Amino acid sequence: MPRFTFRLLPLLVLFLGFSAVAKADSFQITFAGNASGTGQFTTDGLCTMCSPGASLLTWVVGVGPDTGSNAFDIVDDGPATVTITYDRSTNTLSSIGTFNSENRDFLIFHTDLNWSLSSLQGDFSGTYAVSPAGVPEPPTSVLLLVSAMVLAAGIALRNIAPTRRRYAG
Question: The whole model's pTM is what?
Fold first, then answer.
């Protein structure tokens, strides 16, 4: 048994190391005011101040006239979205302004939970709220633990099989 435990120790260290690192989280944004909308974003789960290129993995916002294919996002709006920051400690977004590459609309997030949008259809503003997304993915640590348990069971069975053959006689 001590030999089996010694073989399992590196797996346990690997599991603990990856369970702290390998996680991500998803958030919903809800807009209210003279225009409404929704958005979502994901982070690597480790950042305190998350921004594109620094732990903010995805970000898409559809508000007012900027919905569907005209939504704001970090994929095609590129450098214009660099100023978006999510502050995990206050659960707020901030930006000095984000241009929409499809129609040149301009969206600003304020840390006091207000937003404003300037577009050809008019100016819109209101409040926003950030909340965890409804259906979280299973944490990577759970998947690693299950894998480690299956591997440990395989090692244990392999060690038991030769013992049975010796006594079968």
Answer: 0.65
